[in-house]
Amino acid sequence: MDSSLNTMRDTNLSTWFATSNEAEQIFELQKKNLEKNLSLTEKQSQWFLSLDNSFEEIEDLINDHLVIVARDWGKIVWYRTIIPLEKAPRIDFEKPLLDASTNMEYLWRPLKDYKYCIMGQSCVDINYRGRKVSEILKDLFIEKFWWKFDFWICEISENNTRSMNVHISKLGFKIIGNYDRNGTNRVVSLLPLKENMELMDTIGR
Ligand SMILES: CC(C)(COP(=O)(O)OP(=O)(O)OC[C@H]1O[C@@H](n2cnc3c(N)ncnc32)[C@H](O)[C@@H]1OP(=O)(O)O)[C@@H](O)C(=O)NCCC(=O)NCCS
Fold it and tell me: From the alpha carbon of 156, which atom of ligand 1 is closest?
């Protein structure tokens, strides 16, 4: 087995929905990784986050069970927001993706024929990067969510080659389109949670 997977497992990583007393840690992790708070070298090697939430917005997302985290002995080392479609129209940052993706297709059917949710912002603590945190957590979340959704969608700036590498090459997200957000090309991709045949069978439920 890959030694880095062992290393990660040895850290006693625990995962699930963030709790309200973790809002501060998530807020700080986000702030540290915003474009405005990183040097040019850091931005070029690690990339950065675009969405800058207020503390209250992060608390609201946590209260709505929309933030999943990985903890190493209580320290938040990774978080990801999950945005159900019914909530996306009320979240300004997610609206452009929602609008752009509605007409995209998967297996020759428009996305609206499926049940899916948006995988929103994702960030790994700088000290835990390069240890395949996202890959390790993928199976866990598929196991927990496969019955609820047909797939997850996400958007990534095409310039964020590290994140593109992780999502497309490592996690297996499939590119279904792209759109322009404020002059930056955003690649839209999805991760199927079911086999193709099973997906075709469930369309139109
Ligand atoms: C993007 C992010 C979540 C990925 O997590 P990570 O722990 O760094 O990713 P992993 O270690 O699992 O994988 C990184 C892979 O990309 C490779 N990589 C590193 N830098 C790269 C780059 N500039 N371009 C392409 N690939 C790169 C690594 O070599 C590694 O591949 P390997 O396992 O074959 O060696 C994390 O880097 C992060 O939080 N970045 C800042 C915020 C961000 O960009 N969030 C995503 C917004 S969509």
Answer: 48
